[in-house]
Amino acid sequence: MVLTRKRRVFLVVVSFILILGLSLAGCRAGREAGREKIKKAITTSREETTATPTEEEAEETPQAKVITDVDAVDDEVSKILSEVDSDIKEIENIDVDSDNESGY
Amino acid sequence: MTMKMNLKFKTKLAGVVVLIISLLICSLLPTLAQAARLRTAQRSNDAVVENTTNRLEVLRKKGDHLISVRIKALNKGISRLKSAVRISDEDRDSLISDLQTNIDGLNDLKTKIDAETDLVAMKSEVRSIFVDFRIFMVVLPRDKGLFAVARLNHAVGKLENVSAKLETAINELKQAGKDTSEADGYLTALKNDLANAKSDINQAESTFSSMTPEKDDEAKSMVKSGIAFVRAARQNIKDAIQQARKISTWLRNND
Lengths: 104, 255
Hints:
The complex is a heterodimer.
Chain A: H1 5-93
Chain B: H1 2-83, H2 89-115, H3 119-133, H4 135-175, H5 181-209, H6 219-254
């Protein structure tokens, strides 16, 4: 079958458009895949970044926590000592002589 | 002559009449005296009955008032114990139970006093408010003292807990190669203060617990002694918390 010149030109143009289209589609797919990969990498990186100080904190916990505990106990014990002061005053203020039967 | 005779007769008659009247009066005198005596005795008896009734009422009112004042003070103690947060449930329940027992006893005594009709028994029952209960002399000082002891025990428990944690933290730094001699010194002082506080608390508890209405003559001195132990324990706890703070500062600087 002998192709006319017109048909040959037509086939070349169509082939070129097809190749160009497929190439563009390939590029686009590649770009999307790349973006996903980058996003994933960033997320992983962020998780790792946030995870690292927590581990460090976990190592610091015994000392840091005991300091917090001392502050809490200091606060509570101070309140208790103040209450004990009030108890002592109350005991001292009881009129024990009102229980003396000789006066009735 | 006749007139003379008549006069003589009249005089004799009058003498006889006077004599009869005198005899009658003399015979009635013991009866009258007896009646008068009976009237006086009756009046006296009425007065005694009235006086006894009045005295019973006075004592009943007095007894009811004395009981009411004591129950009010005991209820105030229960209310304070119920709202206290820094003592153990066991200590709270034990103290509330003791105060409630006294309230129940006083209510029973009030029922007796309200129904009493015998003056001697009434006197004895009113006296019992003082002698058998001694609410102000023994019960309230004792239970308030034990309340303070319960609070101190709670504080010591907290400090012992934090002391163990401080020791662990120091040991970890020691194992990491830090020089912990300064912190060790504070920790030893903290432990000593806590041991002394516990000893004082035990003595205060023992002193207050041994107070009873029967030992009323010792009550004042026992309260004084119990308070002295509470004060000593309080000071030792204060010293202990200062040592804990020193260790805390040391940890902050050496972590």
